[in-house]
Write a structure and sequence with these properties.
This protein has 341 residues and is mostly helical. It has twelve helices and three strands; from the N terminus they run ααβαααααββααααα. Strands 1-3-2 form a three-stranded mixed β-sheet, covered by helices on one side. The longest helix has 32 residues, at 3-34. The protein starts with a helix and ends in a 71-residue tail after the last helix.
Length: 341
């Protein structure tokens, strides 16, 4: 290659690098400008949300009335069963991450790749709050980047308690039904503070898609999901054995059925995936050489003298386990979040 062509190639590479850096800077600046000021949410409740306005506009496009059901309640006035059920169902590492659960996002990406679509999102409660307050349900890379940026600001400005309170008050639970108070009254006829464990489980399971998983839809798969949440709450000590039995009766699911389902899922997760490379062939055993007989004329060599007290091997190091916060597993039957709302 001539010197002129080498210089031309270097110029193209330099221009490409500068262009990439400029594009990255422009995108970063656009994301930064698009992040709203969330500091006011420390002490002020939002008067509307992006999802409420979206549903209002959808109703207007269909020429029908939009009947909004939305009543704000502070966290102490929302059933503890619902608070815990939502964290377990939606974001069991809520009290550990800083807005984004990269492990969950990685697993969601793998699931989407295997299924050939965008079904699993891996979003945290903080990300879902950002989406409900400021964005839309549309799936796109730009929305996801903005969602992550807003979630980062929410975590920087607000406490976990406040984030959970905001989320439980703005999330959609049906047609025009927003927030835990409206959901409890609409689906069960009483306020959010009076929700039972079974009712809390039904509301938590409905959250990914309240239109397809509305709390009044009672069939096998949804009932089992609710029952698993009830069992996890009992294992955490949130509800007693009697409350667990009553909740399972309300859900119409037998405890043995749920435990069998959990055991099957755990067995499936324990299966080791096939290796990427084929295993190497085992090394054939070497034949034992036949000892050569010692000529009679030569005396046999004396045996090697072993030391009377051979040195003892150093003991294997032991590790003392100390109580610590155990990160919960994705296995539904495993330990639960270390911090309970």
């Amino acid at each position: 290659m001539s010197v002129a062509r080498k210089q031309q190639a270097l110029r193209i590479l330099r221009w490409s690098g500068e262009g990439t850096l400029l594009l990255t800077a422009v995108v970063a600046l656009a994301v930064w400008w698009s992040v709203p000021n969330v500091a006011a949410l420390r002490n002020e409740n939002p008067t509307t949300t992006a999802f409420i306005e979206l549903r209002r506009s959808e109703a207007a496009a269909l020429h029908r009335k939009f009947n909004l059901r939305w009543q704000w309640r502070s966290l102490p006035h929302i059933s503890r069963y619902l608070r815990i059920a939502v964290v377990l169902a939606e974001d069991y590492r809520f009290y550990e991450h800083a807005g984004a659960d990269w492990t969950a996002m990685y697993h969601a990406a793998r699931a989407n790749w295997a299924q050939g679509g965008m079904r699993a999102g891996g979003s945290t409660i903080t990300q879902q709050l950002a989406k409900n307050l400021y964005l839309s349900p549309q799936r796109s890379l730009w929305r996801k980047v903005r969602e992550l940026a807003i979630a980062d600001q929410l975590e920087a400005e607000l406490t976990k308690t406040r984030i959970l309170e905001l989320y439980l008050n703005v999330v959609e639970w049906g047609d025009g039904v927003f927030g835990a108070e409206a959901a409890a009254k609409f689906w069960f006829g009483h306020n959010a503070a009076a929700l039972t464990p079974a009712q809390a489980a039904r509301l938590a399971v409905a959250l990914p898609n309240p239109k397809l998983r509305s709390p009044n839809r009672q069939f096998g798969n949804l009932n089992r999901k609710c029952a698993r949440l009830v069992l996890r709450m009992h294992r955490m000590g949130v509800i007693s054995a009697a409350e667990q039995a009553q909740a399972l009766q309300d859900l119409g699911v037998a405890k043995a059925e749920v435990e069998a389902n959990e055991a099957a899922d755990a067995a499936a997760e324990r299966k080791t995936p096939p290796p990427a490379d084929p295993p190497s062939a085992p090394t054939p055993a070497q034949p034992t050489p036949t000892p050569t007989p010692t000529p009679a004329a030569e005396p046999a060599a004396p045996p090697a003298v072993q030391p009377e007290n051979p040195p003892a091997l150093p003991p294997a190091p032991t590790t003392t386990l100390t109580p610590s916060t155990v990160a919960p597993s994705t296995n539904p039957g495993s330990d639960q979040p270390s911090v309970v709302p």
